[in-house]
Every structure is written in structure tokens, then in C-alpha cells.
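Ex. 9. Protein: mannose-1-phosphate guanylyltransferase.
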Amino acid sequence: MTSVVIMAGGKGERFWPKSRINLPKQFLSLTDDGKSMIQHTVERVKSLVNIENIYVVTNEMYKNLVLKHVPDIPEENIIIEPAAKNTAPCIGLAAIHIAKKDINSKMIILPSDHLIKFNEIFIDTLKTALDVVEKGDNLATIGITPNYPETGYGYINFTKGESFKDSTNIYEVLRFVEKPNLEKAKEYLTSGQYLWNSGMFVWKASTILKNFKEYLPEIYEGLQKIGKSINTGKYEEVLKKEFLNLPSESIDYGIMEKAKNIYVIPGNFGWDDVGSWLSLERINKTNQDGNVITGNVISIKTKNTIIQGSDKLIATIGLEDIVVVDTDDVTLICHKNNTQEVKEIISNLRICNRNEYL
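Predicted C-alpha cells for mannose-1-phosphate guanylyltransferase:
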């Protein structure tokens, strides 16, 4: 059996003010086709697995949103996290649920808010990863072939090992590297021995649980208690008690940076993590002036600008390299160079207790 686990608990703060606590990024439509990020994520794996084998891990607040956006998913496949504890507890909780049905089930772990241009190539890449984990207690990850020196991603250093030496696109992972400065990123790009860390993983449920036991024993013990309570009347009670006590830990730092038998398959399928408002230029068509415009907009002498509105008229004159995002109660205006600083506005709103804008 193969299962797909979609992680959909994030807040998507860099897409404020459209992304809010009650409607985060994964439920927004940021492409011309009107589909939300999570709808794209589910649709692209339907050729690989049945909907009955697709799981979404999220928090209680977003359960109804998941059902609204993916109405054909079985409700029991929506796994609720009582609190945000980073990716390791999230993935571990999904593994415990899947292992309850089939301990040897292969698991594909995907973020809910990435976009992929070439779906057939993506599916072929996942199939290669599934072959890797079928042959023993291997962990596989999908690395993205970099085309510029990005400082906002972690990197994967790889080499051609002996285990899959006859395969042209399966490599051994030497190490995971934190986000580099620009100089290092240029070195990584030039060397040809580094890939971007996409946050997509493939393994068997049994394999990842063995790794939890070895490298994250505290989380493993909590997960085991939760697992024993599945399909009993005490599940909700045990889940809340045990999960809230788990340490917050990323799967990268907690397991992937320490584990053995890790392989990476380079991905060349038009991947975009849609990390900030600037992403809209990569995933949507620009007009003759280089603008990406949505809504009721008149733009004069405006170039290379992103404008996101709706019914209210937005008129611009003489803008260049600017981002304008208008919602019912908030208007964001910033230079393209400052889109990553949207989180600072959110921090200020929290400090000022202006939670109605979060």
C-alpha cells in the first residue's frame, strides 16, 4: 500500500493580509485557475493513489476548510494535531495512524502549499523514490535542481553511491545543509553537488518509526501511547495529553541530519514553494508591463508590480517594483525587496493586541 500525507497546518504568514489565521495560505487560490493550493496538492497525486489513501494533517480550526476544499476525502483521514509542534511530531502522528492499518505502507510526505508545473515528471520522480524505499529500510527525499543561488532554502549535498549505481537519478545524501549566505549559495550552485531541500519525503511507515525510536525516543514513546489509543474511546484524551507534551522538532534536524541510508532523487518538474508575494510573478502570466494584476485595477506607468485586489477599484500611477495587496480590512503596500518582512507587521500587530487583523 502507498499513502500520501499532506501537511496542512501552517499559517502562511508571508502571504498576509490575504492569508489569515482563519484562512491560511494553503486554502488560498494564487493561480489563474482559481484552485486552492491544497486542491492542487491533492489532485496531482490522484493518479498515484486513491483518495482513501490520502491523509491531511492539520489542526482543529482547519478541519472544515479541508472538507470544503477536498470534499471527497474520508473524514477519518483528516488527522488533527492538538498543537503546532513542527514537522517531526506531525509526520510521526501520521505514521502511527498509517502503521495501524499497514506497518509496511509506503508514505509520501508533501507540504500542502507548493506548486508543480510538470505533473507527469513529478509522479515519475515519486515512483523512483518509492522504488528506493521498497528495497530495504531506506529514507528518500526529493531535491530540487537549483537554477540560481537561493539563500532561503536548505540544501542537500549528494554523491553517486554504490547502492543504486546503475540508476541515473538516485544519489546518496552526504549531508543536509542549513540556509546559506549568498557566497555559499553560489559555491553550492557552481559545484553541481547540491540540491534544494524541498521538504518532500518518501519512506515506509515501519522505517520512519524505527528512526523515531533511535533518534527521537521521547517523541516515539508519546506516539506509541497515541497509537495504542486509536479506535478506542480514549483516543482524543490520550492524543491531547501526549501530543502537547511532545517537544517541537523538525524532521530535518531530528532525523534526516542523523539517519543512515538516505537517498535523494533530483526533481526537475517546475517546483515552486510559493514562499512570498514575489512568487506570483513565477506562477502567473505577467502583462506587457511586467505586472501581475488581479481584481478591478487601472494602472498607468506602472511596471513590474504585483497588484492583488477584488471588487474595489485600485488605481496606480508611476509604480515600479511594488506589491499591493488589498482586502476588505487591510491594504499592504511594500517594495518587492521587502516582501519577506511581512512577518514584522504581524509581530507588531500581536504586540499591539490588534488580533482582528491576524
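Check your answer against this statement. The first helix runs from residue 37 to 45.
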